Every structure is written in C-alpha cells, then in structure tokens.
Amino acid sequence: MTSSDSPATDAAVVVRGLRKSYGSKHAVDGLDLTVERGEVVAILGPNGAGKTTTVEILEGFRDRDAGEVSVLGVDPATAGRSWRARIGVVLQTMNDQAELTVGELVRHFARYYPDPRDPAELIEAVGLTDKIGTRTRQLSGGQRRRLDVALGIVGHPELLFLDEPTTGFDPQARRSFWDLVAGLRDAGTTILLTTHYLDEAEQLADRVAVVRDGRLVALGAPHELGGPEARRAVVRWSEPAAEGGPPRPRQERTATPTAFVRALAARLGAGPGDEIPDLQVVRPSLEDVYLGLIGEPAATGPVMATAALDGEPS
Amino acid sequence: MTTPTQARRPGAAPTRTRTGAGRLPSTLAIGWSRVGIELRQFFRERDAVIFIFAYPIIMLAIFATVFGQDDGRVGPPPGIPFAQYFLPGMVATGVMLSSFQNLAITIASERDDGGLKRLRATPMPATSYFLGKVGQVLLTSIVQAALLLVVAATLFDVPMPDTAGRWWTFVWIFALGTATGCVCGIGFSAVPRSGRAASAVVTPVVLVLQFISGVFFQYDQLPTWMQQVASLFPLKWMAQGMRSVFLPEGAEAGEVSGSWEHGATAAVLLAYLVVGLVLGVRTFRWRRRDDG
C-alpha cells in the first residue's frame, strides 16, 4: 500500500503513514488517504478516532510526528500565505467576532485574498442577505454556520475543509446547509469534511473514509462501504417449534439470500402457496455497516441492533 | 436521499483554474484593514468603553471634584491644585489601560473563543494582526488622552504645558509607554486560562499597580517598601514622567529622589519593551492551551 516515493502531487490531498501521538496516546496511527481534485470525501469516526487531529494536520494547525502529507502539492507544515489563500477552513462551532456584522466580516475577510468572491454575492449565496447588518452574536446556530462557510470560501478555495459542519442543527437547517455544500461541490470545489452523521456523509460525499483508533478502516462510496462482506443480507423468520410450543425467531446472514430462502422453504415443508412465518430479508444500512466497522460491541452490532427492534432476539 | 449518489462525478469535476494574476494583498494593507475592524470591535464592547476608555476621565472627574473642594491642594504651600496633581497619574493610567489591559483581555478572549484560530487559517499575516492591535491602541489612547486633557483644562482649570520641552516629554513617554503596554499586554494574554477569566486576572494587576504607583495617592507619602515594589513596574515611571509634564516648575523637589529621573523612566520602559517583545514572540499562541 504505502510506497516509499513522495506522494503524487496531482491529487488534492495525499496522506501516507501519518502519525501523531500525544504522550502515550496514538491519536493518528499510520493513516493513509487520498482525495482527488473535485471530490468530496467525508471522514467518519467516533469521538477520539483522530478525525480532527488528522484534519488539523492537513490544515497546517498541527505538526505531525511521522508520515508524508501533501495538500494541493504542498506540505502544510511549511506552507505559507499563498497556500493558505488556496484552501478554505471551516472549524468546529465557535462564537468569535461577536460584535461584527455579517457584512463587515465577509468584506473584511475578502481583503485577505488575492482573488476573493464578491462579498454581496457570497452573502446572497449563503442566504444571509437579510442578516447583512446583523451582529454575529444575534445569529441562530444555522445562520452562524452559514457565515462560517462564507468566511471559509470567500477566497475561492480549491480545497475546503469542513469540520463537523452541522452539529446541533435542526433538520431543516441541515437540509439547507447540505444544499449549500452540494452547490460548492457541483462548482468543482474539493471538499474534505468530518462528521458524526451518516446521512450527512451519504448525502454529500463521493467517498467515505471510516477512521478508528487513528487508522483508516474502510474507504469507499457510501453504498459500497465495507465491501460485500459487510453488506451481506440478514434473513429472519420464525421457526415453528417441534412439539407445538411457541415459534422461535431465527436469523441468518447470507451472501445469497434467494438461495437461502428457497432452501429454507423446502426445509420447512412450505408449499408454493405457503408463507414462511415472519420472513424478512434485510440489507444492512450504512449505519449498520459503519457500526460494524468501528467495532461497536457485538450486542449493538448490525444484526442484533435491527433484530432487537423487532422484539425478542433469539 | 434526494440526491442520487450516481449523479456524482468523483474526480471528474473541473478544477477551477485560477486567473493567476491575483497577488496577495500586502501586510500593510491588511494591517490597516485590521485597525478598522479592531476599532469597531473595541467601541462596540460596552465594558471596554467604560472600564478602559472612559475610566481615567471618570476617575479624574470624581477625584478632582471630591478632593478639589475648597481649593484642595497637594504638597507644601502654596501647593498644587488637586486636579493638576491628579491628572498625570490619570494620563499614565489611561495609557496602561488602553494598551496593557485592553490587549491582555481581548487577545485572551479571542484565543479562547477561536477567533485567533480562524484568522490563523486565512492568509492574513501575523504581522498584520499585531499592526491592527497596535493601531487600535494608538488611536484609542490618543483620543482618550486628548479628552482627558480637554476635561482637565476646561472643567478643572488645569494649566496645560507651555513649553515645547514639556510636550516633547509628554510625547516620548506616551509613545514609549503605549508601545511597552502593547507588548506586555500581548505577552500577558497568555496568562489567563480562559477568556472568561481574562478580566478577573488582568484587572486586579492593573488596579494594584494604580494604588502603589502613586496614581490615586501622593506617591512620596506611600510606605518606602511600597515605593520600592512600584519602582519595579512601568506605571510608577510613567506617572512620574507625566508629573514632570503637568506639574509646575520646581515640583520635582516633592519627588522621592528630588528629580524627575527621565533617564530611569526611559530605561525601565525600554527594558519592559524588550523583555516583553522577546517573551511575547516566544509564547504567543493562536490556539487555546487545551487545543493541543
């Protein structure tokens, strides 16, 4: 996997063998990741998995202990102003610059960049035109986040970092935030986002990177994540008891559910018109796959988690 | 689920080609823009306006009114009118509040609320940030000192310096004091552990210095040990230097050393400036302590 030559420079982000420790804790422990230009990649993982540490190394906020990192062809550890002008960073929720208005902030931040967007158009694009004269302390959480994005993209970044962009949003605010990000994606901005929300990753990302204990455990399109093994179907049914007792719920994971059900029907002696009691064939959701990947304890693993919803597990 | 995943074109989206010609704005231009932003933020914080900007003016008005009743005077007869004696200490206090207290508190808060980190993620040069801070301090403290002098001259009949030499002393002590206060304030902003603790940590330091440095009391009447402690800090020297500007001819006889000690004043302020600069450059952080 890891090659010894320096990272290819054409991709937006190339990370090889990244390591970072805090004392004895290995926050990032040999992580590899490539983000192509124009791509949206979501980094998913539980708290403490190393998501934020990784992203902050890519943003140039932290030094790394080992590994190769190239962001837009430059090592963030030694990158200068012209590199910063090419990236956009939206950090986790903050309450800074409370006394300045939306318009003042966007116009001011535009002055930092060689090729900024038009402030008025940008404020329109993030839907804050009617808040242009409002101080940021009076904005709602969702409006505040839209302002954060506006400040992150005012310099026309080639690569945008979004760190947990919709934490604490109501569903409607999330939906409109997603539309905003989708618009950036469609305009060709490369986006690397971290999130706790699977639906967010599914909605926005071309590829999802699942991180656990500072390592990449899976990488792929949301509907392919984890590979065929993690996506094996679960067949559930009720098995009639031998001597007239109550039927017992049963379940089985199988790569070939159709063949399995056919065999099951034959074994239970069901004729062409008969039904297998309580038959279900369930494909794991992204959430099921994700929980399996990050190694949640078996009791809440993919199969049992859904089985528990239907009643008593076997 | 409204957007089908197959509609994406991973890696196929056109990379935006930059027009290229755009050059990074100069450090000075961004610094100037920061001055404007800093001024707006300062004057929109009611706390800052009252306890940093207006404080010396309010204190002068109160003290001069209370102690100046019945022609209250300081020192051996004929004595110096109280308002005149009190004004230099308030000018020195204003410099310290506008520079040291202001920067120590605001930078600690900005670090804590993530404002500094946000700026660090942009192509804004660090120098521009500090230019903005120093510019805000300079403009604010000039206006503050001007108002203080106008109030003293018009409401309390304090005579203004009438020689170029005295004004020159005013200017260099004011400028050097402001520079030292800025540098020390930037350095001291690392001390409060959170933005909320910033005022609670910084304000008492400034208040104690005001009491022992002869701002509220007649310096030569303080206990000797207190004078010695105060001599270790810049405020005492700034107040003494400002007395040399505003008190009448011969008033240096009332000083502990019997002279204005301008050389010592310059030396102490310069020493703080240099040490503060070295420490500040080494310890300045854009992120909170608990942020790695």
From TrEMBL, chain A:
<protein>
    <submittedName>
        <fullName>ABC transporter ATP-binding protein</fullName>
    </submittedName>
</protein>
<dbReference type="InterPro" id="IPR003439">
    <property type="entry name" value="ABC_transporter-like_ATP-bd"/>
</dbReference>
<comment type="similarity">
    <text>Belongs to the ABC transporter superfamily.</text>
</comment>
<dbReference type="GO" id="GO:0005886">
    <property type="term" value="C:plasma membrane"/>
</dbReference>
<keyword id="KW-1003">Cell membrane</keyword>
<keyword id="KW-0046">Antibiotic resistance</keyword>
<dbReference type="GO" id="GO:0016887">
    <property type="term" value="F:ATP hydrolysis activity"/>
</dbReference>
<dbReference type="Pfam" id="PF00005">
    <property type="entry name" value="ABC_tran"/>
</dbReference>
<feature type="domain" description="ABC transporter">
    <location>
        <begin position="13"/>
        <end position="238"/>
    </location>
</feature>
<dbReference type="InterPro" id="IPR003593">
    <property type="entry name" value="AAA+_ATPase"/>
</dbReference>
<dbReference type="InterPro" id="IPR050763">
    <property type="entry name" value="ABC_transporter_ATP-binding"/>
</dbReference>
<dbReference type="InterPro" id="IPR027417">
    <property type="entry name" value="P-loop_NTPase"/>
</dbReference>
<keyword id="KW-0067">ATP-binding</keyword>
<keyword id="KW-0472">Membrane</keyword>
<dbReference type="GO" id="GO:0005524">
    <property type="term" value="F:ATP binding"/>
</dbReference>
<keyword id="KW-0547">Nucleotide-binding</keyword>
<dbReference type="InterPro" id="IPR017871">
    <property type="entry name" value="ABC_transporter-like_CS"/>
</dbReference>
<keyword id="KW-1278">Translocase</keyword>
<keyword id="KW-0813">Transport</keyword>
<dbReference type="GO" id="GO:0046677">
    <property type="term" value="P:response to antibiotic"/>
</dbReference>
UniProtKB/TrEMBL annotation, chain B:
<keyword id="KW-0813">Transport</keyword>
<dbReference type="InterPro" id="IPR051784">
    <property type="entry name" value="Nod_factor_ABC_transporter"/>
</dbReference>
<keyword id="KW-0472">Membrane</keyword>
<protein>
    <recommendedName>
        <fullName>Transport permease protein</fullName>
    </recommendedName>
</protein>
<dbReference type="GO" id="GO:0046677">
    <property type="term" value="P:response to antibiotic"/>
</dbReference>
<keyword id="KW-0046">Antibiotic resistance</keyword>
<keyword id="KW-1133">Transmembrane helix</keyword>
<dbReference type="InterPro" id="IPR013525">
    <property type="entry name" value="ABC2_TM"/>
</dbReference>
<feature type="domain" description="ABC transmembrane type-2">
    <location>
        <begin position="47"/>
        <end position="287"/>
    </location>
</feature>
<feature type="region of interest" description="Disordered">
    <location>
        <begin position="1"/>
        <end position="22"/>
    </location>
</feature>
<dbReference type="InterPro" id="IPR000412">
    <property type="entry name" value="ABC_2_transport"/>
</dbReference>
<feature type="transmembrane region" description="Helical">
    <location>
        <begin position="87"/>
        <end position="109"/>
    </location>
</feature>
<feature type="transmembrane region" description="Helical">
    <location>
        <begin position="167"/>
        <end position="191"/>
    </location>
</feature>
<feature type="transmembrane region" description="Helical">
    <location>
        <begin position="264"/>
        <end position="284"/>
    </location>
</feature>
<comment type="similarity">
    <text>Belongs to the ABC-2 integral membrane protein family.</text>
</comment>
<feature type="transmembrane region" description="Helical">
    <location>
        <begin position="130"/>
        <end position="155"/>
    </location>
</feature>
<dbReference type="GO" id="GO:0140359">
    <property type="term" value="F:ABC-type transporter activity"/>
</dbReference>
<feature type="transmembrane region" description="Helical">
    <location>
        <begin position="48"/>
        <end position="67"/>
    </location>
</feature>
<dbReference type="Pfam" id="PF01061">
    <property type="entry name" value="ABC2_membrane"/>
</dbReference>
<dbReference type="GO" id="GO:0043190">
    <property type="term" value="C:ATP-binding cassette (ABC) transporter complex"/>
</dbReference>
<keyword id="KW-1003">Cell membrane</keyword>
<feature type="transmembrane region" description="Helical">
    <location>
        <begin position="198"/>
        <end position="219"/>
    </location>
</feature>
